[in-house]
Each structure stands twice: as C-alpha cells, then as structure tokens.
Amino acid sequence: MSIGEGCNIKNSIIGPNVAIGDNTVISYSIVKDSIIGSFSNLYEVVLKSSLIGSDANIRGLSQSLNIGDNTEIDLG
Is 7 exposed, middle or buried (0-12, 13-18, 19+ CB in 10 A)? Predict the structure, then answer.
C-alpha cells in the first residue's frame, strides 16, 4: 500500500494493494486492489480493481471503474 502526502482518509477501509496519489480525499469508502490519482475525491464509494485518474470526483458508487483525469461522477 502506498499513500501520498497530504491525503485525508476518514471512516474508510483501504487495501490491500492500493496506491493513492498526493492530496486525495477519501471518505466513507472501501477501496482495494486499485490505483487512485492525485487531487481526487471519493465519497461513499466501494471500489475494487479500479483505476481512477487525477483530479477525479466520485460519489456513491459500488463497482469496478476506470476513469481518466479531470472527471466528475455522481451516482448517488
């Protein structure tokens, strides 16, 4: 597991096999076997085997997801 500098992770389960870029916020989420880019925000998500680009915002998701940089998704 690798967590970048300046990350804010609260009320979440991270791992195994997760890499998180700098300054990412993860709240009320479960993330495993995934790569999360820098400056991303994840709220109420359950991710497995996912690749999330930098500066992405994801809310209310429970599945595998591959998205690029500068993306916003709200499935809540």
Answer: middle
How far is residue 41's CA from residue 7's CA, in Å, rounded to a whole number? 10
Q: For 6-40, write each residue's pLDDT tens digit.
A: 999 999 999 999 999 999 999 999 999 999 999 99
Q: CA distances (Å), 43 to each of 33, 46, 61, in order?
A: 17, 9, 9
Would you state the structure tokens that stand for residue 69, as one six-digit string?
């940089």
pTM of the model: 0.87
> Would the CA dihedral through 56, 44, 49, 75 be positive or negative?
negative
Q: Which residues contact 43 (CB under 8 A, 6 or more apart)?
A: 25, 26, 27, 28, 29, 58, 59, 60
